[in-house]
Structure formats: structure tokens, C-alpha cells
């Protein structure tokens, strides 16, 4: 059916209507502030001929889609894609987006702006043929005022966006391409809170009270004179009013007016990683008795500090920072922001006991921070991976000079109200640390941040540990010594840096492929490239795998256990950020093509935990953990040496291992041990572990030798999805034998088929060297598992997923989409 892609704006939503319906009565202007989701119904085209700056692309080359959108993830993996395998081996290029829309005539008394959360990269935006500006940095949020250029109904307006990710390589990881984050239209009255104009800092004053300091920047674009009134209210999570300010006069002189206020909250509930309690501040501006703006800011009340001897404290309580670094991609979904996909990553990390995220190495999507506020993660927000000195031929170094002030300011202005955000990083492993230019630029950047926010430490992630040689450290502008790697100097940190506060900004870089185990003595460590005698590490495996015993790491890093033991040992080591929480697209160290995603994750790209996840869970969480590795299918093994069996456990005094019912003895961890090990001659059957405390059973776990693949088991993370066209269900497929035992080595080819109110968004298996497109309906299992991601449609109804494999009965899973406004929100 032909549709005309005119969007007509209503408060709180946008609706695609046929042109004939365009003149419906519109309510837009009745509210002082309206925020409209502007993601729907864009047209997109790739520009093949790159010679023209603004080509006229034939109508047939455009297709209709909803944002957020990442065109790179739709492409094929290719060795010769210019992003290289470092960038994920997917295509870049130049893309165009356009959208036609009509605004109500009574909007003429309002201001209208468009907000982009992020466009990768080099975007230029036009309204009705007129350029609004360019933003080179692909991770920064920005806004343009449309007011002077907008044509009221019945005329229509055209927004066009050019996105240029053609110059490659420009990154050390996968970036995605396009308008990959959300877009909104915002209308306000002529006297309103400025974009990012609200700053709330809240901290406990004493045991019974907290102060909430508010600074509001108001914009008067209507040359309104006289006085307006501003007031504030604090609401708790249930919407109950708990504090309000007096009404204060705003003198309307000039275009920008700043107003400060302090409110008190009695018996505050503090925000913490265990109990992330949130408040809302409502700012109300009136003028001549008429509501001019009402603006909401979510905040939390909490305090924290770092101590050079005792580490980190949140709300006065000592706490290790148990963090992970995360790149922004969402695995098979690419860079296109999806709230449920981010939430799932965070749920998996939360269940491991992780309490902090580093947005490596760029500002994140706002949804990540909103989720961290709600779910209880601390966040280090990072600005840049390079300054003036490049790491890649076309990276941000070309734009740093012109844009760093603006980009850094915008990052802090946007993110400063989040209780989760506890630290700003002005750069990662910046080349300027090695010469004196590092002193000046560090000072400048720290000053830029502190001119806006003095409530959080400013750091940079340093790879040169030696204080004598690091010019960024020598600037004395940084609040903590935040080191990447160099665990070898941690014991003596206080000698090297007397009186300084420590943070492990990036750690480990250990490598593993889920479900793959090597026949080495697993209690030796191997570094890549080989500093060890083992040829294996030098040459790699023919199938691009790395052993999942925690024993392989990049030479600049360590195994997971090595560094965690150190952090645990010393109070002054406030915590760490493991490189990385999840595998990410790009940087497939240690392998070349066809490896195209990283090996560093505790969790693989599909979201399936690798074994070391359970080491962290046993150390970082209170959950009872008992996990055995490897699997128990070693019939084809060439060596007759025994198999090294590792067990991670906690909350117990001992673990006893049984092979086919025969005890192999009980063991307990001694000293600093983080796992147990038995050397077990292989015999098919069942290997069972039993953990006990004071002689009583705590937990049992087993691995079993499986027969031939016979069945497909499907498990969805949820069975009801919001019918919003965005919500996702993550479906895990596992291959079982006829007796229901997991076939850990199965590489069954699966075919995913969906009918009903949903679509197959992507498939994956977590294997770093699988070059089948993520859009493919067929996916080979990796080590017995694969993932199908289902995206909900926009109507209520049923979804049926059928997964087929040669010679097996198809597996069927039924899900449902439901009107999300009627759904009970998930609790964190
Ligand atoms: C670090 C760098 C990260 C990543 C990591 C891999 O030096 O900061 O971005 O490249 O190495 O080990």
C-alpha cells in the first residue's frame, strides 16, 4: 500500500497519516512542554556515488524505517571492509535520512527543537533545505532549534540528515553507522528551562536530612519582560510530594536567567547500588498566572568519596568498585539503541554482582544511564579515546581541536543529574601522556568539566603507570590515579604514588571463547603474543578459539584471578573495571580475519556467560554458586592425560566431586584460591559436584556426557512483549540429546522462523569468527547454543517461533505482544 510519509504531531506521540487526514484538530500547543518520539517513518538511502555533497538520490533508492538505525550491522562481514576487523569488518559509507512532517498552526507561539542522542558520524542536518549545523563526534548528543525555519500547517516540513562514516578506519572497535540513537521533537513555550538547563545535586546533610541543590537555567526567547515565578517540588518514587520550595521571582532581564534554590528532604532514602532509590524534582515556571514550563529531573541522594588508604566509600560505607568496561554495541543488534537490549546486558551483569560500568571510551546512550540509575550501577562516563594524537587514520583527532570544548561540555551537561554517574574520564590511554603537551591539555579538559560540575572526580585512564614518565599525571589536575593494567605495580602502589587515590580503570584483558577448553596444564598462564614457551599461543588454533579456562590474557593484562586477588587484598585499591563485561564487535585480539569480535568478555557477544562469570559471581554476589568446567564430552580427545576440572563455589566449606557416583574427594579453597581443581581421568558419564557448609548440602551441579543431538530446547527471557515495535525477547536455543542432556559440542545448523506480531531481529551464537550476517535466519550453534532475538510488532497478538534443524522435530515457542500501557513495569 502506498503511504505518504507525513507525520503529524500530537502530544506525546507521532502518528503516520495519509496526506488526506493531515488537517485533524491538533492539541500540540496546549501544553507548555511537549516531547514527541520522532523515530518513526524516516526514509533512508545509501549514497553510492560519493562525489557530490548533496546528491539527489532516486526515489527508488530510499526505504522506510524507524530509528534508531545502524546500517553497518545490516551488511556482510568482509575481510576487505575498510573498517578492518578492528572495526568489526562491517561496511561504513555515507547514508541519508529524511522525514516530512506537519506541525499545527498554533505552534507559532512556541519554540520547537529537534534532539539527537547520537549519530555516527559527521552528521549534517537540514530543515526545509537550510543547514542547521554539523556534528562530527559520533557519540555526542545534540539539539537544533527549528523555530525560525518551521512552516505551520497546512505546509509540510522536511528534515534531512547526512551521515558520513565513509572515512575508515576511524575507530579501534565497531562503531555502527547512522542515526543509531533516539530522536525527539521538543516544543516549549518562549519562557522555559533551557536544554540541559537543570542541575540537581543532592547529598545527605546528617542522618535525618538531605539537601537538594538546584540550579536552573531559563531561556527567555520571546523577549518577555517583567517577572516570572519559579518553584520546585520533590516527589518520591511513589509520586508523593515530600518537599517544596517557596515561589521565587525571576527577573526577566536578558535571554538567559539563572536561578538557584536549596530544598531539604527529611528522612531521605539514599541511592545505592543495592537500593537505587530515585526522586523527582519538578520545576514549575509561571508568568502572569499562566504555566510557562514544567520540567522534571530524576535524581538520587547519595554521597561518596575515595580515600588513599581505605579505598572507596558510598554513603559512608566501604565498598569495592566491581566494575566492567562496556563498548556501546548490542551484539547482533549492532549500535542501534534498544532499551531492552541494554537492560538485558545490565541484568546479566547485575546477577554476577557487578556494581559499576565504564562507558568505554565515549559518552553513552542516555538510556544506559537511566537504567543504571534504576538498577543500581555506578558509572564512569568517558569522553574520548584520543585527543590531538591519532590512534587511527581518520579518528576524532581531526575534530579534537575544533570540537573538544563543546563535546566535553555537552557530555557533562547532559549526564550530570544521574545519581549513577560518579566520575568523569577525559580520556583513555591518550597518547599525550608521553610528552609535555599532556600537561596543558589535561589541565584544560579538567577545567572544562569542573566549570560545570565539581561534585565528581575527574580522571583519565592512564596506560603509563610510572609517575615520572606520565605527563598527564604530572599535570596534577587529575583527582585519582586511574591505571589501565600494570597489576604488577599494585602491591607497591602507595610507594610509587604516596598519598594518592587508586582506581583500576581497565583491567585483565583476559581472552576466552565460550565452551572451548585446551588440553594444557590449566593452572599455567599464557600471555598473548607468546611470551610463554607454548607455540599454540603464538600460532593460534585453526578455528580461532581461545581456551575458556581462565589462563590466557593479552600480554599487557592478566588472567581474571590474578588481578582480582590483588584488588581484594589491599584496601587502598578501591576497585577495578574489567576489560570487558561483554564481548563486543571488533578488536578480535589475538586473531586476524575471520575473527571479527572480541575475546575479552566475561559474557560472550550473544549474552551467554563464559565460565569465569561464575568466578566473579562467587566473589561478587551473595548468590550460592557452584559451577563445574569443562563439559564432560572428551571421547575424541587424543591425549590420555587427565582432564583438569575446575570448580567455582562460595558460601560453603568444601566441595566433593563424584565421577559416576565414585567420590574423587572433597576439597576446600585455601589462602587466596578462587577455584578448586581436580585432575580427573576421563570416563564418560556424570561428573557431579556437591558443596556443603557445616556438613549440610548447599548446592549440587553436574556435567554429563551427552549422546547425539536429538532435540532443540528453546527458552525465552520473557513470554509477553510490549506491542511497541521495539521490545525484544531473547530466545536461547540449546541442543539436547534424546535423554535431555546438553550436547556441549553440537554445531547444529538452526533455522529460525517467525509468524504473527513479531519479527526476527537477529541471530547469533557468540562465536567470534562466525561471518554469517546477524540478519540471517539460519545460524549454526556454537558449542551447543544459539540465540534468536525477536522484536515485537506494534499490534497486540501472538508470535510463534519455530526453530528447525535437519533430522530433528522443529521446536516451537509461543509468545505474545500486549499493550504496554497495561503492563506492570518490571521491578529492579
Ligand atoms: C586497552 C584499551 C582498550 C582495549 C584493550 C584491549 O589498552 O584501552 O580499548 O583496546 O586495551 O586489551
From TrEMBL:
<dbReference type="InterPro" id="IPR032311">
    <property type="entry name" value="DUF4982"/>
</dbReference>
<dbReference type="InterPro" id="IPR008979">
    <property type="entry name" value="Galactose-bd-like_sf"/>
</dbReference>
<dbReference type="InterPro" id="IPR036156">
    <property type="entry name" value="Beta-gal/glucu_dom_sf"/>
</dbReference>
<dbReference type="InterPro" id="IPR040605">
    <property type="entry name" value="Glyco_hydro2_dom5"/>
</dbReference>
<dbReference type="InterPro" id="IPR006104">
    <property type="entry name" value="Glyco_hydro_2_N"/>
</dbReference>
<protein>
    <submittedName>
        <fullName>DUF4982 domain-containing protein</fullName>
    </submittedName>
</protein>
<dbReference type="InterPro" id="IPR051913">
    <property type="entry name" value="GH2_Domain-Containing"/>
</dbReference>
<dbReference type="InterPro" id="IPR048229">
    <property type="entry name" value="GalB-like"/>
</dbReference>
<dbReference type="Pfam" id="PF18565">
    <property type="entry name" value="Glyco_hydro2_C5"/>
</dbReference>
<dbReference type="InterPro" id="IPR017853">
    <property type="entry name" value="GH"/>
</dbReference>
<dbReference type="InterPro" id="IPR013783">
    <property type="entry name" value="Ig-like_fold"/>
</dbReference>
<dbReference type="InterPro" id="IPR006103">
    <property type="entry name" value="Glyco_hydro_2_cat"/>
</dbReference>
<keyword id="KW-0378">Hydrolase</keyword>
<feature type="domain" description="Glycoside hydrolase family 2 catalytic">
    <location>
        <begin position="309"/>
        <end position="579"/>
    </location>
</feature>
<feature type="domain" description="DUF4982">
    <location>
        <begin position="641"/>
        <end position="698"/>
    </location>
</feature>
<dbReference type="InterPro" id="IPR023232">
    <property type="entry name" value="Glyco_hydro_2_AS"/>
</dbReference>
<comment type="similarity">
    <text>Belongs to the glycosyl hydrolase 2 family.</text>
</comment>
<dbReference type="Pfam" id="PF02837">
    <property type="entry name" value="Glyco_hydro_2_N"/>
</dbReference>
<dbReference type="InterPro" id="IPR006102">
    <property type="entry name" value="Ig-like_GH2"/>
</dbReference>
<keyword id="KW-0326">Glycosidase</keyword>
<dbReference type="InterPro" id="IPR006101">
    <property type="entry name" value="Glyco_hydro_2"/>
</dbReference>
<dbReference type="Pfam" id="PF00703">
    <property type="entry name" value="Glyco_hydro_2"/>
</dbReference>
<feature type="domain" description="Glycosyl hydrolases family 2 sugar binding">
    <location>
        <begin position="38"/>
        <end position="187"/>
    </location>
</feature>
<dbReference type="Pfam" id="PF16355">
    <property type="entry name" value="DUF4982"/>
</dbReference>
<dbReference type="InterPro" id="IPR008964">
    <property type="entry name" value="Invasin/intimin_cell_adhesion"/>
</dbReference>
<feature type="domain" description="Glycoside hydrolase family 2">
    <location>
        <begin position="712"/>
        <end position="812"/>
    </location>
</feature>
<feature type="domain" description="Glycoside hydrolase family 2 immunoglobulin-like beta-sandwich">
    <location>
        <begin position="205"/>
        <end position="302"/>
    </location>
</feature>
<dbReference type="Pfam" id="PF02836">
    <property type="entry name" value="Glyco_hydro_2_C"/>
</dbReference>
Amino acid at each position: 500500500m502506498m503511504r505518504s510519509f507525513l507525520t503529524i504531531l500530537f502530544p506525546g506521540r507521532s502518528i503516520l497519516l495519509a496526506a488526506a487526514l493531515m488537517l485533524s484538530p491538533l492539541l500540540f500547543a496546549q501544553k507548555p512542554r511537549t516531547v514527541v518520539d520522532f523515530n518513526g517513518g524516516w526514509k533512508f538511502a545509501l549514497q553510492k556515488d560519493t562525489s557530490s555533497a548533496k546528491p539527489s538520490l532516486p526515489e527508488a533508492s530510499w526505504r522506510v524505517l524507524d530509528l534508531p538505525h545502524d546500517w553497518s550491522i545490516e551488511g556482510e562481514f568482509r575481510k576487505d571492509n575498510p573498517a578492518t576487523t578492528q572495526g568489526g569488518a562491517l561496511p561504513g559509507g555515507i547514508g541519508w535520512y529524511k522525514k516530512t512532517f506537519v506541525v499545527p498552526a498554533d505552534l507559532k507561539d512556541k519554540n520547537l527543537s529537534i534532539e539527537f542522542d547520537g549519530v555516527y558520524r559527521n552528521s549534517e542536518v537540514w530543515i526545509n533545505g537550510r543547514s542547521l549545523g554539523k556534528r562530527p563526534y559520533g557519540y555526542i548528543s545534540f539539539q537544533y532549534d527549528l523555530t525560525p525555519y518551521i512552516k505551520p500547517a497546512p505546509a509540510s516540513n522536511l528534515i534531512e540528515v547526512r551521515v558520513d562514516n565513509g572515512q575508515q578506519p576511524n575507530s579501534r572497535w565497531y562503531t555502527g553507522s547512522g542515526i543509531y540513537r533516539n530522536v525527539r521533537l521538543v516544543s516549549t513555550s518562549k519562557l522555559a528551562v533551557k536544554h540541559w538547563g537543570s542541575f540537581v545535586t543532592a547529598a545527605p546533610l546528617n542522618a535525618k536530612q538531605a539537601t537538594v541543590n538546584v540550579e536552573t537555567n531559563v531561556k527567555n526567547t520571546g523577549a518577555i519582560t517583567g517577572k516570572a515565578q519559579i518553584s520546585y517540588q520533590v516527589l518520591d518514587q511513589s509520586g508523593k510530594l515530600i518537599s517544596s520550595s517557596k515561589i521565587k521571582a525571576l527577573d526577566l532581564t536578558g535571554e538567559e536567567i539563572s536561578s538557584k534554590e536549596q530544598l531539604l528532604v527529611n528522612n531521605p532514602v539514599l541511592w545505592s547500588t543495592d537500593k537505587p532509590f530515585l526522586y523527582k524534582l519538578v520545576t514549575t515556571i509561571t508568568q502572569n498566572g499562566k504555566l510557562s514550563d514544567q520540567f522534571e529531573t530524576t535524581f538520587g541522594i547519595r554521597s561518596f568519596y575515595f580515600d588513599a588508604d581505605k579505598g572507596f566509600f558510598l554513603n559512608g560505607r566501604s565498598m569495592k568498585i566491581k566494575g566492567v568496561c562496556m563498548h556501546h554495541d548490542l551484539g547482533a543488534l549492532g549500535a542501534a539503541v534498544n532499551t531492552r537490549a541494554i537492560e538485558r546486558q545490565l541484568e546479566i551483569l547485575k546477577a554476577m554482582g557487578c556494581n559499576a560500568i565504564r562507558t568505554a571510551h565515549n559518552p553513552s546512550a542516555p538510556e544506559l544511564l537511566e537504567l543504571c540509575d534504576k538498577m543500581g550501577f555506578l558509572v564512569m562516563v568517558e569522553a574520548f579515546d584520543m585527543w590531538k594524537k591519532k590512534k587511527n587514520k581518520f579518528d576524532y583527532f581531526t575534530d579534537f581541536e575544533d570540537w573538544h570544548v563543546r563535546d566535553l561540555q555537552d557530555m557533562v551537561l547532559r549526564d550530570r543529574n544521574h545519581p549513577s554517574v560518579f566520575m568523569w574520564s577525559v580520556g583513555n590511554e591518550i597518547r599525550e601522556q608521553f610528552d609535555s603537551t599532556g600537561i596543558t591539555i589535561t589541565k584544560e579538559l579538567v577545567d572544562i568539566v569542573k566549570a560545570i560540575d565539581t561534585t565528581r572526580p575527574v580522571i583519565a585512564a592512564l596506560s603509563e603507570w610510572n609517575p615520572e614518565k606520565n605527563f598527564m599525571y604530572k599535570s596534577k589536575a587529575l583527582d585519582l590515579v586511574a591505571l589501565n593494567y600494570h597489576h604488577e605495580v599494585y602491591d607497591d602502589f602507595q610507594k610509587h604514588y604516596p598519598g594518592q587515590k587508586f582506581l583500576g580503570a581497565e583491567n585483565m584483558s583476559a581472552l576466552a571463547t565460550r565452551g572451548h577448553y585446551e588440553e594444557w596444564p590449566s593452572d599455567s598462564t599464557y600471555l598473548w603474543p607468546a611470551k610463554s614457551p607454548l607455540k599454540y599461543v603464538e600460532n593460534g588454533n585453526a578455528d580461532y578459539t581461545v581456551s575458556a579456562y581462565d589462563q590466557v590474557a593479552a600480554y599487557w593484562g592478566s588472567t581474571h584471578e590474578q588481578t582480582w586477588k590483588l584488588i581484594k587484598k589491599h584496601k587502598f585499591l578501591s576497585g577495578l573495571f574489567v576489560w570487558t563485561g561483554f564481548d563486543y564487535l571488533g578488536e578480535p585480539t589475538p586473531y586476524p580475519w575471520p575473527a571479527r569480535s572480541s575475546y575479552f568478555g566475561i559474557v560472550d557477544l550473544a549474552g551467554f556467560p563464559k565460565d569465569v562469570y561464575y568466578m566473579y559471581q562467587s566473589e561478587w554476589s551473595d548468590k550460592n554458586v557452584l559451577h563445574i568446567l569443562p563439559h564432560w564430552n572428551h571421547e575424541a580427545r587424543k591425549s590420555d592425560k587427565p582432564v583438569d576440572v575446575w570448580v567455582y563455589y562460595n558460601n560453603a566449606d568444601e566441595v566433593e566431586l563424584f565421577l559416576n557416583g565414585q567420590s574423587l574427594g572433597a576439597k576446600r579453597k585455601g589462602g587466596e584460591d578462587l577455584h578448586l581443581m581436580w585432575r580427573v581421568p576421563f570416563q564418560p558419564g556424570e561428573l557431579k559436584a556437591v558443596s556443603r557448609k557445616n556438613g549440610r548440602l548447599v548446592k549440587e551441579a553436574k556435567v554429563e556426557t551427552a549422546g547425539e543431538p536429538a532435540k532443540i530446547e528453546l527458552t525465552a527471557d520473557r513470554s509477553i512483549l510490549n506491542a511497541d515495535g521495539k521490545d525484544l525477547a531473547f530466545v536461547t536455543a540449546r541442543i539436547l540429546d534424546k535423554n535431555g542432556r546438553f550436547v556441549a559440542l553440537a554445531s547444529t545448523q538452526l533455522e529460525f522462523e517467525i509468524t504473527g506480531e513479531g519479527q526476527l531481529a537477529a541471530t547469533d551464537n557468540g562465536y567470534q569468527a562466525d561471518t554469517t550476517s546477524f540478519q540471517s535466519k539460519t545460524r549454526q550453534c556454537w558449542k551447543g547454543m544459539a540465540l534468536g532475538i525477536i522484536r515485537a510488532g506494534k499490534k497486540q497478538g501472538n508470535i510463534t517461533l519455530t526453530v528447525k534443524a535437519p533430522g530433528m522435530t522443529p521446536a516451537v515457542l509461543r509468545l505474545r505482544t500486549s499493550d504496554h500501557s497495561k503492563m506492570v513495569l518490571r521491578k529492579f
